[in-house]
Amino acid sequence: MSETMGLRIPAAASDRRAGYKTSSRYDIGVLSFTLPSREADTYLSRLVPEDQEMIANLHPEPKGYEPMAPFAHLGLPEPETLVKGARQIGFCPEGLTSPEGRRLRYCVDLFAHEFAPGSTRFYVRSTIEPGVTPPAAHGPGK
Questions:
Q1: Spatial distance between the Cα atoms of 134 and 142, rounded to a whole number of angstroms
Q2: Verdict on whether the full-model pTM lies above 0.85
Q3: How far is the CA of 114 from the CAs of 9, 76, 105, in angstroms?
């Protein structure tokens, strides 16, 4: 899924999970991984455009929220419901000049959640062009 989105996952990432949902209008890919918080901040500084800032989730969705491509299928809470330690941003590849952003192939919604002291989980959701062949499954967390 990371290759389909054009999003590099750092080598230090753990608990890697991905999913892909097809529909008649568009497909959606979801991706999640965990990094030590110090490495997460470095990764974000190389991905998020300099002129944009991640924001807190000031208006969380209620418990039971079900988006079109839920992270619940990966055994995770929906990032839109998280408040404490959660930041979010959305951006598209057009004009991105950040080192990691230049690889991006589709627009993404990105959430970073420090769910435990020193551990940050990333949630990435992307709408994929219809007709793109879903990525092959490579086993758990690939």
A1: 13
A2: yes
A3: 17, 14, 26
Q: Put the strands of the sheet holding 108-116 in their side by side order.
A: 14-21, 27-36, 119-128, 108-116, 86-91, 55-56
Three-state secondary structure call for residue 79: helix
**Is 36 in contact with 114 (CB distance < 8 Å)?**
no
Q: And the tokens for 32? A: 């999640």
Which stretch of DSSP H or E encloses residue 1? Answer: none
Confirm if 36 and 119 have CB atoms less than 8 A apart. yes
At residue 54, the 3 state secondary structure works out as coil
In DSSP notation, 102-132 reads GG--S-EEEEEEEEETTEEEEEEEEEE-TTP
pLDDT tens per residue, range 43-95: 999 999 888 999 999 899 988 888 876 899 899 999 999 999 999 999 999 87
